[in-house]
Amino acid sequence: MKPVYRFNPAFQTPQGSPIRELFKYTQQQGMISFAGVYSSPALFDAEALAHSGAAVLQESPTACLQYGATEGVPALTEALRALTRERTGGKVTAENVLVTTGSQQAFELLLRVLVGPGDCVAIERPAYPAAIQALRLANADMLEVPSDDDGMDTEALEKMLLAGARPKLLYVVPTFANPTGATLPLERRRHLLELAVRYQMLVIEDDPYGELRFAGTPQPLLLEVAADVPGGDDWLVYLSSLSKIVAPGLRIGWMSGPAEILRRAVIAKQTGDLCTAPWMQLAAARYLRDGCLAKHLPTIIATYKERCEAMLEALQQYFADTLEVTVPQGGMFVWARWRDGTEANALLQQAVLENVMYVPGSAFYAGAADPARLRLSFATAAPDEIRIGVTRLHAAHGKLKR
Amino acid sequence: MKPVYRFNPAFQTPQGSPIRELFKYTQQQGMISFAGVYSSPALFDAEALAHSGAAVLQESPTACLQYGATEGVPALTEALRALTRERTGGKVTAENVLVTTGSQQAFELLLRVLVGPGDCVAIERPAYPAAIQALRLANADMLEVPSDDDGMDTEALEKMLLAGARPKLLYVVPTFANPTGATLPLERRRHLLELAVRYQMLVIEDDPYGELRFAGTPQPLLLEVAADVPGGDDWLVYLSSLSKIVAPGLRIGWMSGPAEILRRAVIAKQTGDLCTAPWMQLAAARYLRDGCLAKHLPTIIATYKERCEAMLEALQQYFADTLEVTVPQGGMFVWARWRDGTEANALLQQAVLENVMYVPGSAFYAGAADPARLRLSFATAAPDEIRIGVTRLHAAHGKLKR
Question: What is the mean pLDDT of residues A179-191?
């Protein structure tokens, strides 16, 4: 007899995530992937990380191997405070820091602490799929705020609020958003924070890509702008991660924000995983303290710049009339839209036969999706591969249209 | 104006956990602690771990530093399968394994997937405090099953089930339980699994200490017994961890069990932390593959044996008439009870003045506590310190009684 388990009805197992489904294709021989958020392995600063990992274990074996405080090991929280000061031009000292097992955990801890079933949470439309997934599992009611090439449309948000929407939380990637690559200009940043204060809506600024700028003018973090908006810093939690600027395998993310919220997040993390691997924390702290990030980051940025340009050029060459493209100033993504009625899901089936892949836009919508949208990542493939990949995409597109 | 956050009402911030409260005392100069589950730093196999960590990063930098599959890196899941075969005398091949960020995460993933507010979950009385805490945060209805020197009283459990209790889950540490140190005999193991099948109750066997046996006869894991009870393996999830036998700082735990349950736990982990730090996973896999655990474990066991004996002797010398003591065959804990009406909480206040500490029994009860109970850990202090600690406890006890 097959056992019948009584699962938690509130834990809705989602339909196979479209991105998970794509994983099987990434293993295909010769595949060129525009799907991943995986940075190129060549960009890992493995030697410096090996040195950091070995040095801290040699110097403080007990601190590396024992349980650590849930909040994070002091050497890392101190280094993250210094990094925050740097990112905000010395303006913000993150007094309260919680180290998390990637920033994904930070987001989920905030949901546990703040969001009950049916609570309203505002997100961008389109938005980061793992955020949508976490909100689904939390049974949150998602309010999709339209966005354009300048990120979330805060005027549209204000109209929704005036019409009575009362999101507890608003989740946003203000710089080089996933999937759109868009960056919120200063006026929208200020507007968003004014709305947060007025409507007592906690803004979660997720900033995994902010340092990956290769064009345009830097915008201040919401975290920095919040310091200038009266009451702003009461309504902002800042999340970031070493995944895109050092290595995802360390699983080091963090949050900073109001003490009352972080205190609860610490309790949720205690029952979650007690603490993030102290050895990894100390290795990361050492890496930062030794200035390795500052030394290595220009290489990552230059590489992404070159790759982005290769992709934009190739897309222009093959799809000038058919594909509308958002030009990013940093990050990992080109967000695009077929002008000729091509459906991104249908094209993907043909594309994998040609050994190229991407993520159809449908993955990024909580509600109804725009079927013509797709996200092309330039993070993983080298410029030559990118050019070949785009010719393959062209071939697939041609075959689909026949 | 102070901001008023709208927290999730279902996330009940617990009153300061009694064990957390004790942390401040552990920092006190000269403190001898019987409170911790921290093994002595001297027991960490730091050199071999340094070698493992360096070797895997050298050989597979990308696998260490990139995101890994949520299920765990193949080298580690394979090593954990081998370890499971060893622990069950070749009887059980754990087909489905999920690597977790400590076994604490494994337990919480199971709660997310299975337990909604008000669902009934059976635990031992007394039980592991972090399990109680996680169940509180999940708003579960806890059914406390009495236990004695042989662990959970399965006859009492059967009576509860006959009387209509319908726990979805039963959480148990069958070998060297925390706090009692008790080990479930074979008949109770079999009985428990028969009840699990009969009442469709999923048993979570948490086995962090099982390999730390220094006396008595080994008992088969519930996991092994389940293979002999018809339908048993449908109703058992096995959790274990490298925290107590290698090092907690790696944050490596795992679960194995029915595919349908693990599949959902993988989805919950995806939104939780994506994956456990691959570098730590690969280092652990290498450590296991190289036979370092087998080489080092006898040292840990011999050390705990010596410390346990030192503690039992000293307690016998100073408290023969006043303290009732459970003699463990392994693990880290001596569970005790004052015969003279001493309250463990009151004594602790006096004890910290004498520079010795322990955990009052009240931390281990979901419901009403026995105030005369206390848990003494022999994991952290060396035999000489243990003897000094017990004389200090004797002094504190004398002063309290005056």
Answer: 98
